[in-house]
Write a structure and sequence with these properties.
The complex is a heterodimer of chains A (about 110) and B (about 120). By secondary structure, chain A is mainly β. In chain A, the strands form 2 sheets. In chain A, strands 2, 4, 5, 6, 9, 10 and 11 form a 7-stranded mixed beta sheet that branches. Chain A has a 4-stranded antiparallel beta sheet with strand order 1-3-8-7, with no helix packed on it. Chain A has no helices and 11 strands. By secondary structure, chain B is mostly beta strands. Helices cover about 0% and strands about 50% of the residues of chain B. In chain B, the strands form 2 sheets. In chain B, strands 2, 4, 5, 6, 9, 10 and 11 form a 7-stranded mixed beta sheet that branches. Chain B is globular. The chains are: A mainly beta (about 110), B mainly beta (about 120). Chains A and B meet through strand 4, strand 5 and strand 10 of A and strand 5 and strand 10 of B.
Chain lengths: ~110, ~120
C-alpha cells in the first residue's frame, strides 16, 4: 500500500497571501496524484489531477506541482472561501487507492 | 449537470446489513466507472470499492473485502453498495463518486461526488 503523508496538519494564512501544502508518497506515484478540497459538511471537490492539471472550473490561483514522491498544492491570493480541508490522493498503485491525512487551511 | 444522490444509510447493529444506493443523473451512467469512498467521524477519506463502467470488474479495500459488494443497475442508473457483517469501525459517511474516464481503463480519481450518507454501526 502506498502511504500518503500531508504536511502541515494546519496552515494559517492571512487573506491575500499564499499557502503551500505538501504531500509525500511512500513510493513513487509518478504523476498520478489528485488534490481535493472539502469544506465542512460538504463532499470533496476535485481541484487537481495528474499532479498539475486543474479540474474544470477551478480558479487559476490553485496550482499543483511535483512528481514521484513529493507534491505541492499552492494557493495564491488566499480567499476566505478557500478555508477548507485539502487532501491528496494517489492512483498509481492500487488497490487500494489512498489519501493523505489532510491539511486544514485557516484564515489568520 | 452531473448529480449523485446517496440513500439507504442509517443506524444498524454490529453484524447487521445495509444497502446503499447512489442515484445518478446528468450523464450517461453506463459509460463511467464508479467508486465508494467513506469518511469516519472526524477522520480523513478512505477508498472503499470501485466498479468498472460495464460492471465487469470490482475491487475492494482490504478492510471491506468479503463483506461489501458493489453492483450497478443500468436500467435505473443506480450504483449500489451491499454491506454485510457490519462492524463499529464501518461507521462513516459514505460517498459515491464518479471516475472521470469514458469507457476503458479507469482513471482512478474522482471528478464528481455525492453529498454523502451517514452509516452508524452501534449496539
Amino acid at each position: 500500500e502506498t502511504v500518503m503523508t500531508q504536511s502541515p496538519a494546519t496552515l494559517s494564512v492571512f487573506p491575500g497571501e499564499g499557502a503551500t501544502l505538501s504531500c509525500r508518497a511512500s513510493h513513487s506515484v509518478n504523476r498520478n496524484l489528485a488534490w481535493y478540497q472539502q469544506k465542512p459538511g460538504q463532499a470533496p471537490r476535485l481541484l487537481i489531477y495528474d499532479a498539475s492539471t486543474r479540474a474544470t472550473g477551478i480558479p487559476a490561483r490553485f496550482s499543483g506541482s511535483g512528481s514521484a514522491t513529493h507534491f505541492t498544492l499552492t494557493i495564491t491570493n488566499l480567499q476566505s472561501e478557500d478555508v477548507a480541508l485539502y487532501y491528496c490522493q494517489q492512483y498509481n498503485t492500487w488497490p487500494p487507492l489512498t489519501f493523505g491525512g489532510g491539511t486544514r487551511v485557516e484564515i489568520k | 449537470q452531473v448529480q449523485l444522490v446517496e440513500s439507504g444509510g442509517g443506524v444498524v447493529q454490529p453484524g447487521g446489513s445495509l444497502r446503499l444506493s447512489c442515484a445518478t443523473s446528468g450523464f450517461t451512467f453506463g459509460n463511467y466507472g464508479m467508486h465508494w469512498v467513506r469518511q469516519a467521524p472526524g477522520k480523513g477519506l478512505e477508498w472503499v470499492a470501485l466498479i468498472w463502467y460495464d460492471g465487469s470488474s470490482q475491487y475492494y479495500a482490504d478492510s471491506v473485502k468479503g463483506r461489501f459488494t458493489v453492483s450497478r443497475d443500468h436500467s435505473k442508473n443506480t450504483f449500489n453498495l451491499q454491506m454485510n457483517s457490519l462492524r463499529v469501525d464501518d461507521t462513516a459517511v459514505y460517498f459515491c463518486a464518479r471516475d472521470p474516464t469514458l469507457f476503458g481503463e479507469l482513471s482512478y480519481y474522482f471528478d464528481f461526488w455525492g453529498q454523502g450518507i451517514p452509516v452508524t454501526v452501534s449496539s
